[in-house]
Amino acid sequence: MKKFDLIDDFLKFIDKSPVSYQAVDNLSQKLIDSGFEKLDKGEKWNLRHSGKYFIINNDSSIIAFRIGKINSDFKFHIIGSHSDSPGFRVKPKSIMEVDRNYIKLNTEVYGGPILSTWFDRPLSLAGRVLIKGDQKPITRLINIDRDLLIIPNLAIHMNREVNNGYTFNAQKDTLPLLSLMQEEADENFLHRLISEEIKIDQDQILDFDLYLYVREKASILGYNSEFISAGRLDNLAMAHSSINALIDSGESESTNIVIVTDNEEVGSMSRQGADSPMIRDTLERISICINGEREDFYRAISKSFMISADMAHALHPNYAEKADPTNYPIINKGPVIKLAASKAYTSDGYSSAVYKQLCDNAGVPCQEFTNRSDLRGGSTIGPITSKHLDIAAVDIGNPMLAMHSVRELGGVDDHYYIYKSFIEFFK
After folding, report:
1. Which residues, 6+ apart, have CB-to-CB distance to 391 below 8 Å?
2. Distance CA 395, CA 370 (A)
3. What would the pLDDT profile of 14-68 be if each residue is shown by its tens digit?
4. Which of 4, 75, 113, 308 has its CA 20 to 30 A from that of 268?
């Protein structure tokens, strides 16, 4: 795929993927359009050489794979990322009245968002709704595609400390305004809104998983149109580039796999998260379907390699002192290998060398990142996956600014660079 075709596709994907459920649904549709077959985890798998498949776990994680050569050198080439981003989850019994004048929603913080960036912006709701079925609940995805909510700031005249390090209270300060009171605001108020949106009877609604999202569209900006400004770059940028690389790379000696898990921002401890049996079970099942012996799975793992792909911190022009003195990535200078003595990242000398060689072969520049020695950094699904798989792995990502803001900033060239490195890996 050419650079600007890839970027245009990415911006559209971001805008259509307000939360993890929609992101996975859009990735699955892209795979189906490219000839991939959806598998049911509860059915027998009949995998074939060069076959293209995917599974979805609990509506918000996806594993897509392309079977490679079936021989004694059977192995996996894996790219892992995640589908979720920090934000706000709507609580059950969420409708709150304020002095019979306003209606607001009761929400809780999901992950580690920069709270101040969510204020005074048009917001809406997206996620999934569970409705009554014949034998079990039926899932319906929902995206209320209009400006619906807002979290209004308190005027500076009533909060003189707002520019001096004010501490926001997640139960008080960040609850979004939904409406003025015009009727009794019981829990049916939200259920009525949902039922109108997905066109079902209100009494059919059993439950929901709803999240706030910001309505502003992704955009390109900068003097040379060099920046991508969008929400959820962390980590939909890696999910998008890896899935496109899997589709575009064609057949390979290895069995190529893309994993996009949910709940990384809250520790990955869910059935659809990286800290679950999902990844290992899927790899083992593929191996047994192809080779018929569990021993072949362990042999394949020993020869396999994984790229844990999550966004990285670029040198900030206003806070250069926050970067390591010698290992600071720059936007549009190429993908970043992330290293940490604490093993918060999986990269070591060997795995870093593998990725450097991939970039060199692809004609892509490559950078390195470490935190300042006196600052604690984040982590990724890389170390979590390593708990379950004895596999060589590297942590990489594209450099960006404003990570976990509602509006993050990345590079146009970097998105294309990392896509090219993934193509090389899968080839």
Report:
1. 76, 78, 301, 304, 305, 306, 385
2. 12
3. 999 999 999 999 999 999 999 999 999 999 999 988 899 999 999 999 999 999 9
4. 75
